[in-house]
Here is the input.
Amino acid sequence: MRQLRKQLYLLIGDLFILALILIFLTQLFAYPTYLAKIPGRDYLFLAAIPLMWAIIIFLQEGYSIAFPRQYVKGLRMLGQTAVLATLAVGFIVFILPGSPEFSRRVLLSYGVVAVALLFAWRMVFGLVVRVPVLRENVLVFGTGQLALAVAKILSPETQISYFFEGFVAASPDEVSNVSGRVILFREIGEMLRQKRIHLIALAHDGALPSQQVRFLTVARRRGIRVVRAQDLYEELTGRFPVTWTSPAEMVFFEVQSRSFSRSVFERLTSFAVGLAGFIVSLPLWPFIIVGQQLTSPGPVFYVSTRVGRYGQPFWCIKFRSMVPNAEKDTGVTWTKKDDPRITKAGRWMRRTHLDELPQLLNVIFGHMNLIGPRAERPEFAEDLNEKIPFYEERFLTKPGITGWAQVNNVFSSASLEDSKEKLEYDLYYIKNRTLVLDALIVLETVKIMLLGRGV
Here is the structure.
């Protein structure tokens, strides 16, 4: 959530700068009383211009936290945004009938000034978020595999909220387990006197010796935050740490907001949005079907059994994107990247996720939610239950048309690593579901559909 807050700050800064430039240029190039004389309806158009810029920047991954430090890439992205936004506004103003009044000088100069100031803002933002005083210095207590994984996530290339200060080893024998700075536990008092530490991530295997427990208790009383390394891993990656979670800990794994009132609200919302989405998408269906039949005549829909909440099976309906009887010779098998069974129209449907539009019927009937883990086939689910710890936990909630794993571009394949990574994203969503996370998934899904980046 720290990363999300920083992205929000970047967005707010963009909108403020874009609105300020628009007000200044309309006053400068139109006439001093321009804003006071334009019709009230045109204010809505003017307000939409900064929003249009922000949307185009978002579609180009411009709100990635890494972007403010990638100056060449960022400048190119802003230049492309200026061209697209200027063309869009110009089309609305100068071609469409009944469009608002707008100065050509304002339109042309807005793009140039906006690119310059937004680029400057991103440079400042990239420097500010890396100021040491704004970051938390982290010590990782331990030298095992979990400690190494957390240290890797804390690398400066991928992390701007924290700064990794080193590992804490209980004895000299553990020093050789890791590379990088290692502080012996007996020397940690001296280290804390020299360096301000804000956070200790506990990645110790087994029970802690009483001396270390006393130290961590004192550290908390002095304002140092002590967290489990698993929790820090979860926060920084958006993935639940399956590898480093014990069966005893999974007993307390709980679905977020599982109250009766939340369930009723969720069902009513899913039904209403699913019905609205079905009605709005219906005009697209004839075009999808025509494209499908031109490239691969055969059945329009593909219906298969999927595993729902609590392991209950249901019929899942999608537009057919493969050749008819694709599994006749192979049986149930994973889809591969560049799978030859996928038709030309099917490849396009999968990239834009349009093949999943009929699943809105599953949402209406209550088999699925709009957002949730991907609906899995029983054959795959049974196999993965045996090979991946806690895989069955993903069935604590209904599957969804889109989800946290899907928008993070995790491809469904026969690879156990891919399936495990997908499970980590699914369990993170089940555990941490909020309206903010749902909204983020919806925005990312729209972006994927518009840009054709589906997997």
Observations:
- The first strand starts at residue 136 and ends at 141.
- Residues 2-30 form the longest helix (29 residues).
- The mean pLDDT is 83.
